[in-house]
């Protein structure tokens, strides 16, 4: 199954349209309530984002119209993306999202090694002692470098798990 | 003034930390440059969180050295694999790989490193001579000139984006919009903060840049089929004799370095255009016995000296005006801002020691590149053998810890992930990412100076045409856009004609 790049372009246009809608929603609510959506250049903090949002609106409208009139055979927008190719990036982002969510709860040391192992297995490595060992080494070497040399306190989570190096 | 600046920066540079980090930066830059898919920008982004906790000259030395090393590192994989580690080294492949096939891989890498270092030093001379003069000229600028200049910087980047003018402009404007999030400097009102204290200062630029470039790149890397494959590469051991091989092509070296430095000073042009242009010029000027494309030393000299000379050129508008020449220099400007320094004429006037220190770290980076690059080549070859299945989680973890370290905030990590998804979407739809970063950097410069201009103006927006320099810049902007549209239409007409001929 494939998806045409043209539709990905539409997805970007949709995303930017939502951004523009949020800009105007904020101008008419939050900024108006604060009294910063009117007046001269000093007081009116909404004028500039409004101008940029309108500019983006004009540009994406132009982009949308142009994409409709393009010739089909030699246009890069007509290239296709295989949906199956997107499986691994989608899983990677999911693993990463779960990792970030658990990082604050369980802390760096409990979450990082499983994340690295998951990514390695996703990339085609076998789940083995070597993989787990490599993940442990990567996790602890980076933690040591940041905590000892750069004095960064990594998230300890609800168990406050931090290694006193 | 120039000598004073360098002398005052000498003390800041001559510390074990600054020198050591400059050397480390060059080595790290060479590694990330050599690894296909990473490159100097990614190297700078990954270690930016580390750098901003350091003294200013050491921090800038570290990051600039990564830029310098990374701009050269791509040539190693272009010559050996043959896959250019970065687009900067794409033209090096034309003659570098044929040299390797003829059993001259060590010579090719040695020439690439020597030409890069010598070209980089040439770029350094241009930087040292041109940046203070440009800063001096810009010291007369008022808000209208700065606002017009910010627009010029953004348009130039968008115009030269390899995707399309329209997409480049959209991406740039998206960056400008992101820059408005947070507390307004004039009215102190909150914009797009959604009552969250995390948003009061907007999104941290490092979280945004790491997400856009590093996370999206790692997601793209997982799509390849050779994630656990170890490339079979022969160990190359270049010697210092390569320097003499390079100097034999001194005319080519000088010409290509000049082209590189020139393109570097133009916002948006960058190393890829300069290396291909230099290659084309060198090929056109070569004698019939120099077989370009079949392993000519001159081809490697031309591309590598040009792309590293571009680094020096790129730093000219970045330091003197605060206008980044490309995404890497935009991130460097971001680093300077985080460190508490504002690039532009005031930096040259009020903190000449920082400017002098930056000049010195740039020159030192190129000298270290020459020595360490040649000595440590076998190490980079070894790194090329590491399967991507190990590199991807390491890069992801570096992104995470680095971004978390900025403000000890898990919120920043989710910002990074969010922009990672935006980056993937934009790349998939062929939208360039660099204009977003340039937009974020130029956003405050543009908005603040636009509003200041309107505050001092008696007749609104006409102030931009009343002042000669801002009027010229606006005309330049119009010409840039008109030219880009004309070229796009002409290209379209050509491709349509070709299509009709095909039928």
General description of the model:
The complex is a heterodimer of chains A (165) and B (503). In chain A, 66% of the residues lie in helices and 4% in strands. Chain A has five helices and two strands; from the N terminus they run βααβααα. In chain A, strands 1-2 form a two-stranded antiparallel sheet. Chain A folds into two domains: 2-78; 85-149, no CATH class. Chain A has helices at residues 5-34, 47-69, 87-106, 108-122, 129-149; strands spanning 2-4, 80-82. Chain B has one domain (2-139, 146-226, 237-456). In chain B, strand 1 and strand 2 form a beta hairpin. The longest helix of chain B has 35 residues, at 468-502. The radius of gyration of chain B is 22 Å and the shape is globular. In chain B, strands 1-2 form a two-stranded antiparallel sheet. Chain B has helices at 2-13, 16-34, 40-51, 56-80, 93-101, 105-138, 143-160, 165-178, 205-221, 241-247, 250-265, 270-285, 297-321, 327-338, 345-350, 352-375, 377-384, 388-407, 410-428, 434-456, 463-466, 468-502, and strands at residues 182-183, 190-191. At the A-B interface, helix 1, helix 2, helix 3, helix 4 and helix 5 of A face helix 8, strand 2, helix 9, helix 18 and helix 19 of B.
């Amino acid at each position: 199954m494939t998806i045409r790049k043209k539709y990905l372009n539409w997805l970007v246009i949709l995303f930017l349209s939502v951004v523009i809608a949020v800009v105007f929603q904020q101008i008419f609510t939050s900024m108006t309530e604060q009294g910063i959506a009117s007046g001269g250049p000093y007081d009116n903090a909404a004028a500039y984002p409004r101008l940029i949002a309108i500019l983006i609106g004009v540009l994406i409208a132009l982009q949308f119209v142009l994409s409709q009139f393009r010739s089909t055979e030699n246009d890069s927008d007509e290239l296709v993306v295989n949906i199956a190719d997107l499986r691994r990036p989608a899983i990677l982002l999911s693993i990463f999202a779960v990792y970030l969510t658990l990082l604050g709860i369980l802390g760096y040391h409990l979450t990082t090694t499983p994340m690295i192992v998951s990514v390695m297995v996703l990339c085609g490595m076998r789940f083995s002692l070597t993989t787990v060992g490599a993940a442990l080494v990567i996790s602890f070497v980076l933690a040591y470098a940041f905590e000892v040399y750069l004095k960064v306190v990594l998230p300890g989570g609800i168990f406050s798990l931090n290694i006193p190096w | 003034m120039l000598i004073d600046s360098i002398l005052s920066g000498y003390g800041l540079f001559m510390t074990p930390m600054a020198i050591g980090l400059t050397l480390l930066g060059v080595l790290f830059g060479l590694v990330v440059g050599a690894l296909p898919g990473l490159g100097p920008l990614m190297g700078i982004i990954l270690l930016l969180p580390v750098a901003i906790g350091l003294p200013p000259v050491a921090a800038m030395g570290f990051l600039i050295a990564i830029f310098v090393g990374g701009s050269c590192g791509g040539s190693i994989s272009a010559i050996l694999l043959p896959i250019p580690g970065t687009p900067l080294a794409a033209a090096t492949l034309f003659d570098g790989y044929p040299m390797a096939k003829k059993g001259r891989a060590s010579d090719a890498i040695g020439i690439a490193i020597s030409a890069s270092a010598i070209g980089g030093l040439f770029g350094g001379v241009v930087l040292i001579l041109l940046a203070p003069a440009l800063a001096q000229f810009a010291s007369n600028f008022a808000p209208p000139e700065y606002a017009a200049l910010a627009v010029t910087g953004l348009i130039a980047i968008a115009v030269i984006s390899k995707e399309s003018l329209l997409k480049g402009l959209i991406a740039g404007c998206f960056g400008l919009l992101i820059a408005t999030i947070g507390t307004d400097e004039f009215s102190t009102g909150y914009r797009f903060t959604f009552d969250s204290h995390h948003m009061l200062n907007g999104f941290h630029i490092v979280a945004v840049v790491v997400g856009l470039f590093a996370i999206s790149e790692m997601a793209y890397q997982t799509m390849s089929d050779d994630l656990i494959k170890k490339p079979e590469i022969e160990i190359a051991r270049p010697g210092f004799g390569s320097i003499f091989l390079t100097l034999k092509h001194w005319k080519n070296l000088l010409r290509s370095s000049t082209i590189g430095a020139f393109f570097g000073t133009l916002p948006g042009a960058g190393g890829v255009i300069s290396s291909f242009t230099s290659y084309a010029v060198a090929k056109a000027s070569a004698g019939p016995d120099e077989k370009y494309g079949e392993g000519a030393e001159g081809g490697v000299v031309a591309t590598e000296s040009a792309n590293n000379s571009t680094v020096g050129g790129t730093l000219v508008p970045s330091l003197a005006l605060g206008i980044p020449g490309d995404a890497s220099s935009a991130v460097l400007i971001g680093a300077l801002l985080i460190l508490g320094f504002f690039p532009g004429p005031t930096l040259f006037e009020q903190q000449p020691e920082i400017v002098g220190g930056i000049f010195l770290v740039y020159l030192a980076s190129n000298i270290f590149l020459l020595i360490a690059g040649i000595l440590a080549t076998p190490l980079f070859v070894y790194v090329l053998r590491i399967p991507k299945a190990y590199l991807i989680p390491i890069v992801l973890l570096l992104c995470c810890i680095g971004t978390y370290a900025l403000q000890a905030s898990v919120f920043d990590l989710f910002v990074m992930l969010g922009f990672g998804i935006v980056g993937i979407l934009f790349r998939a739809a062929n939208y360039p990412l660099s204009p977003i970063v340039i937009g974020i950097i130029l956003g405050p410069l543009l908005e603040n100076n636009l509003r200041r201009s309107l505050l001092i103006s008696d007749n609104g927006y006409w102030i931009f045409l009343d002042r000669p320099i801002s009027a010229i810049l606006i005309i330049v902007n119009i010409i840039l856009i008109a030219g880009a549209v004309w070229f796009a239409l002409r290209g379209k007409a050509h491709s349509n004609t070709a299509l009709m001929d095909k039928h």
